[in-house]
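Work package 3, deliverable 3.1, input record:
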Amino acid sequence: MNVRMREPIGRIFFTVLLALFLSVVPVPSWFDAARPAFLVLTVLYWSIAVPRAGGLTLGWIAGLALDIFQGSVLGQHALALTLVTYIAVREHQKIRSKPVFQQSLIVMGLLFIYEFVVFAIDGWTGHVLYGPLRWLQILTGAILWPLAAALLGRSHAPR
Amino acid sequence: MAAFGVGGNRRLTGHGSPPGFRFTLYALLSIVVMVLDQRGGWLNQARFLLQAAVYPLQLAVSSPSAAWAWMKESTQTREVLREEIARLRIRESELALRALNYEGLARENAQLRGLRQALPPIADRWLVAEIVNVELTTLRQRLLINRGTTNGVFASQAVLDDAGLLGQTMHIGPWSAEVILITDPEHAVPVQIERTGLRTIAVGAGNEGTLALPYLPANADVKPGDLLVTSGLGGVFPPGYPVARVAEIHRDAVQPLAQIRAVPLARIDRDREVALVWFKDARVNNPEIQPQPAPHKSAPAAAPVVAPAPVAAPVPMFTPKSAATPAPAHPPDVTPKSAPPEEAEDAVK
């Protein structure tokens, strides 16, 4: 059954681009606080599902793109995203064997690490830190995970 | 489980360098890039190129709202358009009259003072820019506009709309520029209360779309409704442009500083077009106001990044500003019962 593509590079590229779009498209401010980190979820998904194609390079480049879009210190999101991608790639077999609910919890942990790195770099570079709302997206991201995984899974499912 | 059913029989382990090694590599790379970007702005060139590279994508990002606006506009009825034209005509003649008046006053003022330099810097050239993208969150209040270095836009250029000051340019790309708004918590603009001449600093308050005046003593002469204009200190914004109106004042007997909120005059959340302004030219006449090399990567020369914590010992952060304070050839325009500028500075200490 070698009909399916070994590494769905095109789909990865497309979905990551879409996620980047969703992450930066302007939305009403009440939603913005709760906006899940679409880009992180997508990169995590590909890192777990196809760790050879997704993975560190993808994470780093996607993070850098986010940095440029958001005007943050170059490398900030890149570092955070590389870190969680690394964890995901390392543990992809364990994560993959878990039921979706537990996957959500793991993703929540990863999102927390991600947000914490971003938060810490914000602090070191003298940016503004206040607002407990920035942690809200961890929760929404974790809640969104089963749906995101199902959608992305379908996007590269063989026909 | 089901979510990952697909990749089940795929070869999983990467070939080439192990992930641990690559992670270390990328992490180091990120840190180097961050340090370079943060200190000394060595990556300005790279950022410039990258900004050019992502501009098409940024346009795409803004396309839904642009399409919506276009739809709304093109389905407007003739009636509405007519009304709008009539309204604009009236406004135009009003403004023309006011401009005549203003020029006369400025000339008279200059003659009275006998100083040519006392002429307020005049908006020399305007460039209208369209807003491509808006980012209004608690932590960041930025705009992306569709003008860049190819249009002569430079960093720390004043951005206005027709009602008041909006912000200043930050990262400039070839065809786009990022504008930091005056309501961004990392932005501070030196202002003056028009009624009294009292000088202070207005710091952005984040997503409430307001400004805070955290450095005025509790007994300062401020009333709700007072107009704040730019004071011209710091050299980024010319003096005398309207910024905000004081909305509420909390005087707490315990705290030495008053807590004051001001609402910007610029219609930050409703604008679709903004104006970039070239001024002729406070800097030529007053070499002292040359913007100092920004202490912080992106910090506008006028506004060393100010921590949002209201009273958190801001003294050291203000040293660059105090250094620039010996108000050069711009005496406060409004000086009836002007508090000496030191008073505001003292309040900080």
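Chain B touches chain A through 63 residues (CB under 8 Å).
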